Target: Methyltransferase domain-containing protein
Amino acid sequence: MNKRRPDGSAGDADYGAIGERYTSYRQPEPRIARLIEAALGDARTVVNVGAGAGSYETAERAVTPVEPSAVMRAQRPPGLPAAVDAVAERLPFEDGAFDAAMATFSVHQWGDFRAGLREMRRVARGPVLLLTADPALVRNFWLYAYAPLVLDTEARRYPAVADLADALGGLVDVTPVPIPFDCVDGFNEAYYGRPERLLDPGARQANSAWSFVDAATRERYAEALRAAVATGEWDERYGELRHRPFYEGSLVLVRGLPG
Model:
């Protein structure tokens, strides 16, 4: 059962506390958006669950956003539809109300991801899309050398891909998502070749896993990374990433089709 906070947040992260500057750092990345659009196919009506400020929504489709956090709903641009105040586990729609359903960077924050996916499957006649991370790959990212508890948190929160597939049922395919060097959606791995960006407190705040680590530990991790960048240690260990146009990390697109 989700416990809703004062701003309406219903997942494990408190977006009333961490979400105020979210859109300054988390913009939809066009190259990732194209993969989502292709996976949605010819779906005209789409429910976006855990819609946040509206990343990866498009005016080309009739999107119904669902977002429990008032702070996040308030950051939605004027051109996007207002979000329905509801949680994934209890979607206020009839069976088969939409051609498709999607959730980007939100399934790991739900109180009961299986219940949420059942609801998405219930209300969607066609594909259910999840932009998420494979927890088995999360700790492979270089940030683990500097902020291990942050990525331990990420790995713990994200459901295993096999469990997502099991909960979705039907036919499921999983596609690795290449992350471009200049990715504008500032999740941790988006800065794979730009470690300096994670020295910005706002960039870290826009990644909810950092909020599960106490303030003193967060600052200690930031100082360790700052020193590694300043001394050239980071470049000695990982500098070749500055020249990679794309990075394949833990980001995946999971698509479930009715069986």
Q: What stands out?
A: The chain is about 30% helix and 15% strand. Residues 15-257 form a domain with the Rossmann fold fold (CATH 3.40.50.150). The chain has one domain: 15-257.
